[in-house]
Amino acid sequence: MSKRFEDQVAIVTGGADGLGFALARRLASEGAFVAVFDFAGEKLQGAQKVLGSAGASFKVDVTDPVAVRAALKDLVAQSGRVDILVNCAGITGRTGIKSHEVTLDDFDRVMNVNVRGSFIMFQAAIGHMLARHYGRVLHIASISGKEGNAGMLAYSASKAAVVAMAKAQGKEYAETGVTVNALAPAVIRTAMVEALPEVQVKYMTEKIPMKRCGTLDEFAAMAAFIVSPENSFTTGFTFDLTGGRATY
Prior knowledge:
The mean pLDDT is about 95. Helix content is about 45%, strand content about 15%. Strands 3-2-1-4-5-6-7 form a 7-stranded parallel beta sheet, sandwiched between helices. The chain is α/β, with parallel strands linked by helices. The longest helix is centred in the middle third of the chain and has 29 residues, at about 105-130. It starts with 8 loop residues before the first strand and ends in a 7-residue tail after the last strand.
């Protein structure tokens, strides 16, 4: 496999398992030093064992700006730079319910992790990229952020906010050498998806023209391209990974 990320340092939040871990492994295999930021201690240890000397693990709550800044400081002291940030940490909240059944606590919790966490990570990392006139930021959104999934109000709203964040930031930093994009997958078979009610997964899968879920390898391949040096003339864009569900 090519080493297109050689000498680059990447941060992947939520990188201890699922989408984040799949991408962390892909970036490491192509030469990047990958820092995994995650709150799941046991899974984080497992991810570190797999990454070995190609990565570092930080137990971080992305919604805590003090903890995030401290982890960034440690990483930069260790690696000297930050080239890539992928905001993959996310939660679905309670699903399979209508909007009037959503509790404010659950809504706030989903928005806190999915939106506020991505924003906090961006603010902590962007200065390091601007100083080097190069960077790649990828916010992981969802098709639900484009179309809205019934029964997933909090999650859909949070991912719509993530799409808007990428659009605004992409324009703001377009002349700096830093690109900011989003990626909107449909259903990718992960532990988070497995935890959803089967009726919810069936509802989402049936909307996909290919009539199947995406794979972790498909996700990692597209995400890796988005944060690569090759992707130099696209910013503020939301890439599609939906098996034909979203064609705009």
